[in-house]
Q: What sequence folds into this?
């Protein structure tokens, strides 16, 4: 299991955006990008799909067009052609991210927020709100908010139920849920969190770490690194 991420502002170049967009073999995901009203959302969606194509190439040495993508009842995408290969996607702010490997996973990346009190009051448990209030600086409270929020999101995405489960039904602080393990990576003004089941970790599914991906444009050709 590993996580890769990228700064999607690399796709601000229209020619580069169009070239990668044409590579996406899944019509539903291409349509999703086209439905985005704002450029920043188009860049984020394209970044997630680029990471997915890159992941599939690296893991299988096959081209993405042979893979059939479907979505579960709560929107979590999966591969019908390769059920033993798991992945999860997230994007926020300037970053898109993917976690993938041979076991189910959940991932969430979130950008630092200025106003998060309403979110905390609505979606955090009393224990989590107390942990937030205990912080004595704005920076510490923001860090604590991102840790709680990304843990909750990645935990729900691991199960595939998404926000159909009440966020108030479980705590992620001070300890993780008994059935989950979290891995965190700080980015400029963002936090990235990956969640894997404790059972899979105990069986030997090690987390290999976080890798930043870059996309270079050289003589009109895109190179994947």
A:
């Amino acid at each position: 299991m590993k996580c890769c991420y990228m700064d999607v502002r690399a796709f601000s170049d229209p020619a580069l955006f169009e070239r990668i967009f044409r590579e996406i073999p899944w019509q539903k995901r291409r349509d999703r990008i086209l439905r985005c009203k704002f450029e920043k959302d188009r860049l984020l969606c394209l970044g997630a799909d680029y990471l997915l194509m890159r992941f599939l190439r690296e893991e299988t040495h096959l081209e993405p067009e042979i893979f059939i993508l479907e979505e579960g009842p709560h929107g979590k995408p999966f591969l019908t052609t390769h059920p033993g290969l798991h992945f999860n996607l997230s994007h926020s702010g300037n970053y898109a991210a993917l976690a993938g490997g041979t076991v189910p996973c959940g991932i969430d990346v979130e950008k630092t927020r200025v106003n998060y009190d309403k979110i905390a009051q609505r979606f955090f448990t009393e224990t989590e709100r107390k942990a937030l209030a205990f912080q004595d600086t704005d920076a510490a409270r923001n860090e604590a908010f991102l840790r709680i929020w990304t843990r909750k999101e990645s935990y729900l995405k691991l199960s595939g139920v998404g926000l159909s489960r009440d966020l108030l039904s479980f705590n992620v602080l001070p300890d993780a849920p008994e059935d989950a393990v979290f891995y965190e990576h700080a980015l400029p003004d963002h936090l990235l969190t990956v969640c894997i089941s404790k059972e899979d970790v105990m069986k030997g599914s090690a987390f290999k770490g976080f890798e930043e991906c870059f996309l270079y444009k050289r003589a009109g050709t895109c190179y994947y690194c």
User: Anything to note?
Assistant: The helical segments are 14-23, 27-35, 39-60, 117-123, 126-133, 138-159, 198-202.
